Amino acid sequence: MPAYQPPVDAAPSDYDPAGMPAGAPGGAPGGAPGEVGPQDVIDAQGSAVEQQRQAIMDAAPIPTEAIPIKDVETLTEELNGVLDAVNQELPPDLEPLPQVEWEMTKGEMTWTAAPPPGVWVPLVTLAMLAQEAEGGKFKTKHGFDPSGMASKADYKITAAKLRNMAKDGAFIKAITTTAFGGEAGAETAQPAAQPGAPMPADAGAGDDILAEAAG
């Protein structure tokens, strides 16, 4: 499965070091025109994260055939296995990532809609991290394209990819460091991402929303 190519709108690149869109208007209350106050930065960050989330969710694929519920459940289990592995590497001051749930109607035997946001966004985030971690070191081994999940075979392949990710300790440590910082590789880690706050300009679009998306 080819590496994931995020939607154009999902990866804003024109950010200044403060995490605010370059050239964004704003002024601190009572300040001179053009001054940027703390609230301006907070508002810009929140808007950018929401735009990222929406662009990612809009790219969720609708299957071209009915997906058996057992395949949906297997994929969900494997995704939660990756999240569990990440939790083992999180710094102690961060809350563990919650398990994701694929909500469906009781008695359903197949799935014909796009993946729900609570599952889709973490999948996209993992695809982005697989490309970025340690300068792309794991791109060939663990890279995958969730936007191509259109068939039963695609769901099975993605589940197998996730299973292999969870077993690769070096990969789990690398993506945890990329997304959250912490003790694993702390000397080269990006600043820790807090829910709702975008990463610095040179980080990927999905890093800052992993914890928020999983919740």
Describe the structure.
The protein is mainly alpha-helical and 215 residues long. The protein has helices spanning 38-58, 69-89, 117-136, 139-142, 152-167, 169-180, 210-214, and strands at 67-68, 110-111. It has one domain (1-215). It starts with 37 loop residues before the first helix and ends with a helix. It is globular. The longest helix is centred in the N-terminal third of the chain and has 21 residues, at 38-58. Residues 8-31, 183-209 and 211-215 have low confidence and may be disordered.
How are the secondary structure elements laid out?
Blueprint: H1 38-58, E1 67-68, H2 69-89, E2 110-111, H3 117-136, H4 139-142, H5 152-167, H6 169-180, H7 210-214
Antiparallel strand pairs: 1-2
User: Whole-Å distance between the termini?
Assistant: 27 Å
Tell me the overall shape: globular
The largest sheet has its strands arranged as: 1-2
How many separate structural domains?
Answer: 1
Q: Assign a percent range to the helix content.
A: 40-55%
* CA radius of gyration: 18 Å
Poorly predicted runs: 8-31, 183-209, 211-215
Structural class: mainly alpha
User: What is the average per-residue confidence, as pLDDT, rounded to a whole number?
Assistant: 74
- Total E-strand runs: 2
Helix and strand element order:
HEHEHHHHH
What's the helix count?
Answer: 7
Q: Largest beta sheet, briefly? A: 2 strands, antiparallel
The fraction of residues in strands falls at under 5%
Task: Briefly say what this structure is.
By secondary structure, this protein is an all-alpha fold.
